[in-house]
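Typical record is below.
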Amino acid sequence: LGRCDLAAGKHEDALLSFAVCVGLDPDNPAGHLHQGLAHLRAGRRDRALADVDRALGLDPANPQAKALRET
């Protein structure tokens, strides 16, 4: 649902969905990565980078997280 909301430009709704995902499975890098994308699109760069860094901490080889960190 969060990815659909994100694609539809519903950043706040996406953030709620991803917060639930991260809460249920905090060791899943995808949840942190997608939450970071939602923060980035909502204009919250600092929070986005924190989420991306967490995703990279869990999966240092994640190409999406690496690409986001470099932007």
Q: What stands out?
A: The mean pLDDT is 95.
